[in-house]
Amino acid sequence: MSAATIQAAEAAWQQARRRRRGAWAGWGLSFLTAILVASWVGEVDLARLARGLPMAADYVWRTVPLLRWDTLGDDLAEWFWGLDHWVVLLLDTLLIAYAGTLLGAAAALLFSFPAAATLAPRWAVSLSRRVLELARTVPTLVFALIFVYAFGLGPFAGVLALALHSWGALGKQFAEVHENADLRPVEAVRSAGGTWPQAMRFGVLPQSLPDMLSFGLLRFEINVREASVLGIVGAGGIGEELYLSVRQFSYPDISAILLLILLTVTLIDLACGRLRHRLIGPGAAAGA
């Protein structure tokens, strides 16, 4: 290899290196500019944050009850004085999440087939996806406020709010699962004279069912957490009791209710995680 060739290769390498450095510098400057603009729009104030952190820590500390070893039983009984009532409200929360997830999943199943690009005409895919986007874009609390206004206080508003949001979220996920299905069973059903719904039922659904059940369990976990706060707007469940405790400055009650919610959500997460692991297999679960 001649010296001229080596020099040309080195010059090209240096030019590519300078180009990469320039690109990284441009991306870094854009990222820094975005952070500064976001900080300005969000009114980020480090001094205000430093003043507020001790107050937040003081509020949290107030919720921690005084537990003495010699009177531990009495102290715990006083801390969880409303345990029977709170457990009933927690069960209401679980039922709200279960009913909302079930209704949302049923609606999502119906809309997921026309929303899959490989299974339906383009106009049907576009229309179905826009409807699903609307359902999952509106926050659950906003849906709950609307339904509380329409149907009054109580769990019914919470169930409808969770069902609508779950419909939009699960519909998109189910449609993506359908798009990865093998189309040969669909073609076999259609060539045997089957209708489009029959092709979806017997050609696509058996392939998609394990992943759909996994997504449904994950949505149930999310809805349990969502249902825990829907009571703030009067949609039933343990959230309403938590909101009342916060407004009345009943600090020990706040920590007791939060501890019960945390324990319940943890158990639900563990149980649903094991079910998902059994449904989709160890390899798929690890990859997810």
UniProtKB/TrEMBL annotation:
Keywords attached to this entry: Cell membrane, Membrane, Transmembrane, Transmembrane helix, Transport
SUPFAM superfamilies per the UniProt record, alphabetical: MetI-like
Annotated InterPro entries: MetI-like, MetI-like_sf, PhnE/PtxC
Subcellular location: Cell membrane
Domain of life from the UniProt record: Bacteria
Membrane association type: Multi-pass membrane protein
Any one GO molecular function term: ABC-type phosphonate transporter activity
Annotated TM spans: 24-42, 95-120, 141-164, 254-272
Pfam families associated with the record: BPD_transp_1
Keyword Transmembrane (UniProt): yes
GO CC annotations on file: plasma membrane
Domain ABC transmembrane type-1: 90-272
CDD domains with a match to the protein in the record: TM_PBP2 (cd06261)
Family label: Belongs to the binding-protein-dependent transport system permease family.
PANTHER family (alphabetical): ABC TRANSPORT SYSTEM PERMEASE PROTEIN P69, PHOSPHONATES TRANSPORT SYSTEM PERMEASE PROTEIN
Protein name as it appears in the record: Phosphonate ABC transporter, permease protein PhnE
Encoding gene (name): phnE
